[in-house]
Amino acid sequence: MPQTYHLRVNGESREVSVDGDTPLLYVLKNDLELPGAKFGCGLAQCGACTVIMDGAAVRSCVTEVRSVGTRDIVTLEGIGTEQKPHPLQAAFIAEQAMQCGYCINGMIMSAKALLDRNPHPADGEIREALAGNLCRCGSHNRIVRAILRASKEAAT
Amino acid sequence: MNKVLTRREFGTAFGGLVIAFSMGPRLAAAADGPPRLPGTLAANKRLDSWLRVDPVGTVTVFTGRVELGQGATTALAQIAAEELDIAFVRIRMIPVDTSHSPNEGVTAGSNSIEMGGAALRSAAAEARAILVQLASEHLNVPAAQLMTEDGLIFARDGARKTSYWELAAENPLDREATNSAPAKPVKDHRIVGQPIQRLDIPDKVMGRPVFIQDMRLPGMVFGRVVRPPNYGAELTRLDDAAVRKMPGIVSVVRDGRFVGVVAEREEQAIAARAALAKAAVWRVPASLPDAANVHEFLKTRPGVVPKIVNEKTGMAAPAMKTLEAVYRKPYLAHASIGPSCGIAGFIDEGLTVWSHTQGPYPLRTDIAKVTAMPPEKVRVIHTPGAGCYGHNGADDAALDAALLSLATNGRLVKVQWMRDDEFGWEPFGSAMTMSARAGLAADGSIVDWQYDVWSCTHNMRPGNRSGVNLLGAWHLAKPLARATPAEAPLPAGGGDRNAVPVYDFPNQRITDHFIADMPLRVSALRTLGAFGNVFALESFMDEMADAAGADPVAFRLKHLKDARGRAVLQAVAEKANWKPGTKGDGARGRGVAFSRYETTKTYVAMIADVVVDRTSGMVRVERVTAVADAGQTVNPDGLKNQIEGGIIQGTSWTLKEQVVFDKERIVSRDWVGYPILTFPEVPVVDVVVIDRPELPSLGAGEASQGPISAAIANAIRHATGARLRDLPFTPERARAAIAQI
User: Fold this and answer.
1) From the CA atom positions of chain A, what is the Rg in Å?
2) Are A129 and A114 in contact (CB under 8 A)?
3) Interface touch A99/B641, C-beta < 8 Å
4) Which terminus of chain A is more exposed, N or C, with fewer CB under 10 A?
5) Which residues of chain A does B14 touch, with a Cβ-Cβ cutoff of 8 Å?
């Protein structure tokens, strides 16, 4: 049976009425009109659905909405604006760090979680942090360059 | 059939994606004839089917090429802006829509710039000439004395002037193309050749709705399909009573063995799919071949006919040494990160379908056949999806949405395949066997080259006259027959793509054994047969070099007259600091490979550096250095991105990938069963482009995939002495090969 959940998303309080076992991904996409997170596998294997909850990158495709509670959810839409994009968003544009871009939500959100705890990661640390995020187009090296660029720009 | 939304209601309801509802200019007749028009212009002659000058100061471009994440839209916009002499930002690219876009068939075969770009360049140059001529009449100044800059048309005195935007009201492009205007001289190019940032990237990094998977339409409901356990399974019983009572269910659809469900909410449709799958009882024949011997099985199918596709005889010294080797490639999956998606519904008495298909028009043809509707009542609108790398489930998902919509009063139904649908049902790239035999003369040169390739078809796309190539259509109670597979002629070819060497051998015979049977569903995967053929050809070139005691780079150059081919090989040797005679140290080694895609497109040479763990057999590709010549480069960063991406994807194919199946089912149904290369495993890739602005642009999107497989094989041999001829190079295979030395 549907229940009402009060979620904290991108700094706002949002109310949804859904079954408790609904994956957070569908609530974001279909109820809250936040299409940034993508359905890739529904199995927590690819990372396309990544969002940040209380500072940690989580897979929204396997996160039941009832498990979220009062935790702060940040999605790709919530980290920057057109006028003031997040340094990662600006860096992904500067490095043209994608081909199709379907995985990019997960790349940016996983990278944000990484930079928030380790502002100046080495190349290898970035690759390890993104080991669970799959890219099929072969844009990996551009993505790593974009994250390095964002980490440098945040420092200046 | 219920009318769900009017165009007006629809247009106002959905603002996130560009959806143009204009009737658009008339489509050109597809008749061929003089004048000779370049690329796809011949099939779409009307200039206003390509370009529209807008009074507000923009030019709208209707391309028939779809954006697949390959950056084609941006490069085409560059070409249009350049020839029209307007700022890049004035171009508006309209996604392909069968209600008004030129019909450019399928966006595939690395043809968007080579063919689509040639057509658009000609149309844009002619549009500019027409506008100048019109201005000449208005201003009373001979056209030759008029100049253009960013849409302004002015006489040399500067006093008399007008603009494209002022002339727009006169419908200047309401006519057929004649290819009469010369293209802009290369020395005047300001936009073509520049690394202009892609148009689609900002929306993608901001999380705006870009992909079909992001689309939400008013009144839209969610569909899922329950596929059979395997290709030939029959549905013997389906008690759907309990599923119909599940929350949010709008309809349960069964037509033969096509079973689907539509629900108000997406997670409800997913839950109902799982419940339906449990309720369904199937008879499952053990119809798949033995995976361990699949290559031999395919070669011995009835009806495999050898066809000599290339033969050359000439004078040559006798062969002193003859080598023979057999190479194999497994079935490969497209493995798109985003499972396929389709949306369909009845709007204005017709069926509107949104799809990330590579061929909106061919898809329309097949959907019209399945739904028994006239094609003009079916409208297909391209909306980007995840990278497809060929014919994946996109078209099938579109038909799924159409069938579920038809069974649900024409409501707008969105279907996204689940991960296991994609891996289980997409058409794979065919398994292949390549056999090479060559003779070496006393002087160390190849005097005779015999090559045989066995492959199933690489093209079972929709739009084929001989049948319907959409999955759902085969499962209906009255199934539609799939098309008859056929081999495409060279130089593009299919299974024999790139089977003909670019090298100059005095004698050669290339034989294509086309396997009409297809025990696993197959169709076009990036490069078609070229990946397997270049892997074999370039591996065997190294084996021959070994036998001749020659350096692999020098050995290739010795057999290659083509100046551009020589240039990329020499450049990559220099760039990677190739040193002839250097021995691998047991663990580290490097290998070279070269090809010209389709033998007519982009040249690529590359050198791979690998490290092999002799104990585990784990192969790590550390670095790849590549040099590409794609003729005139429209967007150098876009070109590098394609070459780079192909190398990384090709490394993944080479080291890790194969479709796993048993006698009954496709077993590799998720990313654990079908692993791909991950960040820590990705090589450093360094791409150098040789720009040739004076020469035509060549297709590049698939050019680097073939050579990387052979470069890795050759590097492993160099490092360890072990020659791997069966893809993929798993640790078990590498370990076994090393143990045999």
Assistant:
1) 15
2) yes
3) yes
4) C
5) none
